[in-house]
Amino acid sequence: MSVTSKKNRGILDDTLVMQKVTEILSGIRIPDLPYPVGSVEADQVADWRPLLLSCWNEQRNETVTHLLNSVSITWSVRQVNAAYIADRIMDVFLQTSGLHLVLAQQLARLRFYIAWRLSEDSESTFDSRVRDWLDSLVEWRGWSDTGGRSSKVLLDQLQGMIIAVSASFQQESIEPFEQFCMQWEADSVTRNQRSEKLRQRLLESECGIARQTRAEQTARAAVGRALRNRQLPVEVSRFVLDHWLAVLRQVVLSTGQDGEDWRHANKLLEWLVWIGDPSLSDGNTDRLYHVGEQIGDRISAVWDRVLGRAMPAGALSGVESVIVSRLRGEGLQLAPALEGRNLDYDESWLAVAVPSAGDLATVKGQWFVEGKGANEQRRHFFEFLDDTNEVLWTNGFGVKLGSMPWREFVQQRNSGNLRLLPPIRRFNDVLSDTVETLFTVHVKQQTQRQEAARLAREQADALRKKVEAAEAQKREEIEAQRLALEREREEEARRQREEREAEALRVRREREMEARRAVDNLKLGGWIALRSEDTPIRLKLAVKIAATRKLVFVDRLGLNRTEYTEQALVDEIVEERVRVLTSAAEFDDTLSRVVGRIRVGKS
Amino acid sequence: MTEVGHSMTNDQLVDESNTSPDLRTEYRLCGRASVVLELEAADGDSGAQARVAEYLTKDVSPHGIRLETSEPLQVGALLPTTVRLDASSGPYDLVTEVIWCKPQSNARWTVGLRVVESDGTSMIEWLDALASALAAE
Question: A-chain residues within 8 Å CB-CB of B108?
Answer without folding.
Answer: none
